[in-house]
Write a structure and sequence with these properties.
The chain is of the alpha/beta class. The longest helix is centred in the N-terminal third of the chain and has 31 residues, at 2-32. It has eleven helices and eight strands. Helix 2 (64-74) crosses helix 5 (120-135) and helix 5 (120-135) packs across helix 7. The strands form two sheets. The protein has a six-stranded parallel β-sheet, with helices on both faces. It has a two-stranded antiparallel ribbon with strand order 4-5.
């Protein structure tokens, strides 16, 4: 019995040491094997791949149409009360983080009525000036770097936006991108009629535009990338093999996490997966935009 009393604790002690030895061995083995590196992306020289970037709040802070409206107001294209409405819509969008269909429709109708009768070439020229005045300083450096990575890899990069295609083309050209897909306003003999061709390039229409361009360019969408901040662009993001959520709204963030899409938030300089709200600077900008809209509205009275 004495011998058994001596053996039993020894067995237990030996088992514990065996477990410890096994764990140490496994850990040492893992340290000797280099971790598997993530494949380089974008792939250098893959000419069947391209990148598609949403514009508003993905590439640029705020809405391109609002900034364009500010420039047109400065040039007396419309009255101050219209700018107040645009400012309020922009402030509401930034506070709510989602697009309001009624606001969007009103903004489109206003923009079409403003440009009616003007020449396309005139608006393109003015667009160059407005880019320097209001848009250049609002380009997100992080998103710009992503676009440049695709260009450096020899791939084409396209903006895809509900903004007028002429504005989108100016921005794409100034950023050195390949081109832009945008909403097309009807023109006859180079003069705007005040009507759209089809519908705004928004939501599912963006996905159809990307699909059509990919077919024309001979692209393999499974090798392409798309970037957006809005859940409205989930159809476009779902088309490609490499979807990215950039500065995402709440619905897109949840969707991206569920599908293990990559997230980036340049409003704070950190990945969106670690961030729940905009940075204080962003909140201050929102408050400033709201105050400006209220001040303009009061001056009308």
């Amino acid at each position: 019995m004495a011998a058994l009393g001596w053996l039993t604790p020894r067995r237990r002690s030996a088992t514990a040491r065996s477990v410890l030895a096994g764990e140490a061995s496994a850990e040492a083995a893992r340290k000797l094997v280099p971790p598997e590196e993530e494949p380089a992306f974008p792939v250098l020289g893959d000419d069947r791949a391209a990148a598609f970037f949403d514009l508003d709040n993905t590439v640029m802070q705020g809405a391109a149409l609002f900034h364009f409206g500010r420039g047109l107001h400065k040039r007396k294209f419309f009255e101050t009360r219209d700018l107040a409405r645009f400012a309020w819509q922009q402030a509401w969008f930034r506070l709510a983080g989602v697009e309001d269909p009624e606001h969007m429709q009103e903004a489109r109708d206003s923009a079409l009525s403003i440009v009616k009768g003007h020449r396309v070439s005139e608006l393109m020229s003015i667009g160059e000036e407005i880019y320097d005045e209001y848009m250049a300083e609002r380009i997100w450096p992080g998103t710009r770097a992503l676009a440049q990575a695709h260009l450096d890899a020899g791939q084409k990069v396209w903006l895809v936006t509900a903004a007028p295609v002429e504005i989108a083309q100016v921005i794409a050209r100034r950023l050195g991108l390949t081109g832009a897909l945008g909403t097309v306003a009807e023109s006859v003999d180079g003069v705007y009629t005040g009507k759209l061709v089809g519908e705004p390039l928004h939501g599912p229409a963006k996905a159809e535009a990307v699909r059509a361009l990919a077919t024309a360019e001979g692209l393999d969408l499974t090798r392409c990338a798309a970037y957006s901040d809005s859940h409205n662009d989930i159809p476009m993001l779902s088309l490609v093999g490499h979807p990215y959520a950039i500065n995402p709204d709440a619905k897109l963030r949840r969707h991206a996490r569920d599908l293990d899409w990559r997230l980036r938030d340049y409003r704070t300089g950190r990945k969106a997966a670690k961030v729940g709200i905009p940075a204080a600077a962003g909140v201050g900008a929102v408050a400033g935009g709201t105050a400006a809209a209220i001040a303009i509205s009061r001056r009308r009275r």
